[in-house]
Amino acid sequence: MKRISMPLLLFLLSVSLFAADKDPHLKSAAMPFYPVLALQARVQDKISLHFVVNEKGETTDIEATSGHKLLRDAAIENLQSWRFWPPTCACRVKEEATLVYKLSPDSESAQTPDVAVKWFGREGPITVQIEGRVRLVQWQP
Fold it and tell me: Quick one: what percent of the chain has pLDDT higher than 90?
């Protein structure tokens, strides 16, 4: 009986090791923000980011590869707060994310938030849409 159970145990362990997901998964992140200056200047853009998830699940080596300077700095600051379930391989994993900063006109409702955030992408690159509300001001002489 012991001869059969030991090989079976070794087989199950080897299968579980090969089946383990080596990709880190997002565990927590601070609420992304839309920079006030970018809102006032009505800047919107898509920011592509490359970063590394280290052995502790922290984001390091963050690099913004496209987008407006005001939004790139905010996107990098946003990504610094992200924490991942560490990869099972105890290694550094390269990841990608896209933060889309989008403007929407002010609605008449006072209950509408100044910024709305939507998260996408359970598989592949994470995409976050940050929609800022632009307050329309009527000019009066």
Answer: 38
